[in-house]
Specification:
The protein is mainly α. The protein is built from 5 helices and no strands.
Length: 102
């Protein structure tokens, strides 16, 4: 029984560790910039990204707006951007607690 409790505590500790990602451990500079921008919720980190399309994707992830996605030239990155914005906006609409009582 003690082994099970130790295992559960270890899993909980690893779960918390996995949620807090250290952006400095990422090898790619663009991924570091996106990670930092999302953690700080600031688009100024997106300016460090090398390509224009990824820079716009970063900005759209920080501030979900489909207008930013429309300026992306690469089809794959544009669809990723639009999908992210759609998920964030639909979560904001449908998961928002209603003031109406049934």
């Amino acid at each position: 029984m003690k082994k099970i409790h130790c295992f559960i505590l270890l899993c909980l500790h690893l779960g918390v560790f996995a949620q807090t990602q250290d952006c400095d451990t990422l090898l790619d500079n663009d991924e570091q910039a996106i990670c930092s921008a999302l953690q700080q919720k600031a688009t100024r980190f997106c300016d460090a990204i090398s390509t224009q399309d990824k820079r716009l994707l970063c900005m759209a992830k920080v501030q979900p707006n489909s207008y930013t996605c429309e300026n992306i030239k690469a089809a794959g990155i544009r669809s990723e951007c639009l999908l992210h914005v759609k998920k964030v906006q639909s979560a904001a609409i449908y998961n928002y607690p209603s003031s109406k009582k049934p």
